[in-house]
TrEMBL record:
This is 6-phosphogluconate dehydrogenase, decarboxylating. The gene is gndA. Pathway: Carbohydrate degradation; pentose phosphate pathway; D-ribulose 5-phosphate from D-glucose 6-phosphate (oxidative stage): step 3/3. It catalyses: 6-phospho-D-gluconate + NADP(+) = D-ribulose 5-phosphate + CO2 + NADPH. The lineage of its organism: Bacteria, Pseudomonadati, Bacteroidota, Flavobacteriia, Flavobacteriales. Catalyzes the oxidative decarboxylation of 6-phosphogluconate to ribulose 5-phosphate and CO(2), with concomitant reduction of NADP to NADPH. Keywords: Gluconate utilization, NADP, Oxidoreductase, Pentose shunt. Pfam families: 6PGD, NAD_binding_2. Its EC number is 1.1.1.44. It is an enzyme of class 1 (oxidoreductase).
Length: 467
C-alpha cells in the first residue's frame, strides 16, 4: 500500500521529521540523492512498512498516496527550485508540495504561482525547533492555500509540539505567510540571543559570576517569568565541560557569530515596511561586528575603555533579570508589530494571537511570555504594538528602571550592551508624545524645500529659511 507522507532531503532535520511522522501513526517515504542518508533513514526507521526511502525520485513519487503530500527539507535557494523541477513531471493535479526550509518569502510567492499554473498546491511552511524539535515536535508555520491545508493538517497536528495539548501548528494565511512568519520568528530569535549574550557579559565581567554561578542564575531565571528555551539552553551551556582540554567549553568558543540570513531579511524587510525593529537590527549588526575579529583586536590595542566598575552579585542578578525580561518584551513587540504591518501590506490575514499560540512550544523562541502575548492579542484583535496592551503595562513599568540602570552602568564601564540599549531607546521613543524630529523636518525644508506640517494648523508649509 502507498505511503501517507513524502519527504525530500534526508539530512538530520528531514530524517528526524520523517521518524516523527511515523511515530504518530502515519507511513512516510523519504528521498535523497545521497545513498548513505537513504540507508541511515531505513535503518533508523526499522519497519519498512512504516518508513522507507529511495534515491530514485520516480520510485519515491510512485510510493505516495494521492493527493501526494511532499515536504522539502533542503537548503533554501536554488536547490528548492531544482527539487521542484525534478518532481514536477511526475506529479498529478492537486498534489501538494510543502517547503519546510527557511526560504525567502518572495521565492515562495513565485513558486506558489508557478506551481498553481501546473495544478500543484504549494505551501511555504516554517519549521522551528532544530533537530530535536523535528524529532519530538516542532512548531510549524504553514501558509498557502487554505483548501489544500486540510490535506496536510492531520499529519502536521500529529507531529507538532503540544502546548497543554494544543498542537503548535495552524494555517496562518495565504501565499508566503508561513515563510514570512518564520522569518520574523528568526529575527526575534536573533534579538533574544543577542540580549542573552549581553547579560552574560555583564554578569561575568561586572559582577564576577563564574560559569557555575551563571548556570545557577540562568537555571533560576528559567524557573520564573523568563522561562524560555533560550534561557534554558543557556544555563546548560555554562555547565558543559570542554572535552578537548581543561575548563568549560563556552570559554573556548571563538567569538565570531555566523548567520544564514533570516535575521538580516527580517531587518531589511522591516525597513521596507517602515516598521522599526532596532532590537533585531542591532542583533544582526553585532553578528557582523563579531566577525571583524582581526580589526577588533587591533582596535582593542589602540583604544582603552574605562575600567569596569564592580557590582555586587545579588544586585547585578536582580537588575539583569528585570532588564532581560523588559528587553525580551520589547523584542517580541517589535517582531509582532512587523507581522501586523506585513499582514496588511501583503494580504496575509495574520492572526497574531494564533501566531503567539503556536510559538508557545516547539520553536526556538518559545517562552512563558508567549502565553501572555497570545492572551493580549486575543483580548484585543488588531492590536499593533504589545506596548499598548493593558496586560503589559505593569510588566514593562516594573522592569524598565532596571534596564535604565543596566544601560547606564554598562555605558560607564565600556561594556557593549547595544541590544539592551536599543530596546530601551525604542521604548523611550515609542512612548514619547513629542520627539525632536520637528528639527529634522525644518532641516529638510531648509536645504531642500521638502515642506513640513505644523502642530497648530492644517496644511503643507514651506519657508524661505534665513530670508
Ligand atoms: C529554528 C531556527 C533555524 C535556524 C537557525 C540558524 O527556528 O529552528 O531558527 O531555522 O536555521 O536558528 O540560524 P542562523 O544560522 O542564521 O543563526
Amino acid at each position: 500500500s502507498k505511503y501517507d507522507f513524502g519527504l525530500v532531503g534526508l539530512g538530520v532535520m528531514g530524517r528526524n521529521f520523517i521518524l516523527n511522522v511515523a511515530d504518530n501513526g502515519f507511513t512516510a517515504y523519504g528521498h535523497d540523492l545521497d545513498e548513505e542518508k537513504v540507508n541511515a533513514l531505513k535503518e533508523e526507521g526499522g519497519d519498512l512498512q512504516k518508513v522507507d526511502a529511495s534515491t530514485e525520485v520516480n520510485t519515491f513519487v510512485q510510493a505516495l498516496s494521492t493527493p501526494r503530500k511532499i515536504m522539502l527539507l533542503v537548503p533554501a535557494g536554488k536547490i528548492v527550485d531544482a527539487v521542484i523541477e525534478g518532481l514536477l513531471p511526475l506529479l498529478d493535479k492537486d498534489d501538494i508540495i510543502i517547503d519546510g526550509g527557511n526560504s525567502f518569502f518572495t521565492d515562495t510567492d513565485r513558486r506558489e504561482s508557478y506551481l498553481q499554473s501546473k495544478g500543484i498546491h504549494f505551501f511555504g511552511a516554517g519549521v522551528s525547533g532544530g533537530a530535536k524539535g523535528a524529532r519530538r515536535g516542532p512548531s510549524i508555520m504553514p501558509g498557502g492555500s487554505r483548501e489544500a491545508y486540510k490535506e496536510v493538517k492531520p499529519v502536521f497536528e500529529a507531529v507538532a509540539a503540544k502546548f497543554k495539548g494544543e498542537p503548535c501548528v495552524a494555517y496562518l494565511g495565504p501565499k508566503s505567510a508561513g515563510n514570512y512568519v518564520k522569518m520574523v520568528h528568526n529575527g526575534i530569535e536573533y534579538g533574544l540571543m543577542q540580549l542573552t549574550s549581553e547579560v552574560y557579559d555583564f554578569l561575568h565581567r561586572a559582577a564576577g559570576l563564574s560559569n557555575d554561578d551563571l548556570h545557577d542564575t540562568f537555571a533560576q531565571w528559567n524557573a520564573g517569568r523568563l522561562q524560555s528555551f533560550l534561557v534554558e539552553i543557556t544555563a546548560e551551556i555554562f555547565k558543559q565541560q570542554d572535552d578537548q582540554g581543561e575548563g568549560r567549553l563556552v570559554d573556548k568558543i571563538l567569538d565570531k557569530a555566523k548567520q544564514k540570513g533570516t535575521g538580516k531579511w527580517t531587518s531589511q524587510n522591516a525597513m521596507d515596511l517602515g516598521i522599526p525593529v532596532p532590537s533585531i537590527d542591532i542583533a544582526v549588526s553585532m553578528r557582523e561586528l563579531s566577525a571583524l575579529k582581526e580589526e577588533r583586536l587591533k582596535a582593542d590595542e589602540i583604544y582603552s575603555r574605562p575600567d569596569i566598575r564592580k557590582m555586587d552579585q545579588e544586585t547585578a542578578v536582580k537588575i539583569a533579570e528585570e532588564a532581560l525580561y523588559f528587553a525580551f518584551i520589547i523584542t517580541y513587540a517589535q517582531g509582532l508589530h512587523q507581522l501586523s504591518e506585513a499582514s496588511d501590506e501583503y494580504g496575509y490575514e495574520l492572526e497574531l494571537e494564533t501566531i503567539a499560540k503556536i510559538w508557545r512550544a516547539g520553536c526556538i523562541i518559545r517562552a512563558a511570555l508567549l502565553d501572555d502575548i497570545s492572551r493580549a492579542y486575543d483580548a484585543e484583535k488588531g492590536l499593533t504594538n504589545l506596548l499598548l496592551a493593558p496586560a503589559f503595562v505593569d510588566k514593562v513599568k516594573s522592569t524598565v528602571e532596571s534596564a535604565r540602570a543596566l544601560v547606564s552602568f554598562a555605558a560607564g564601564s565600556g561594556i557593549p550592551m547595544p541590544g539592551l540599549s536599543n530596546s530601551l531607546t525604542y521604548f523611550d521613543a515609542y512612548t514619547s508624545g513629542r520627539l525632536p524630529l520637528n528639527l529634522i523636518q525644518a532641516q529638510r525644508d531648509h536645504f531642500g524645500s521638502h515642506t513640513y506640517e505644523r502642530i497648530d494648523m492644517e496644511g503643507i508649509f514651506h519657508t524661505e529659511w534665513g530670508a
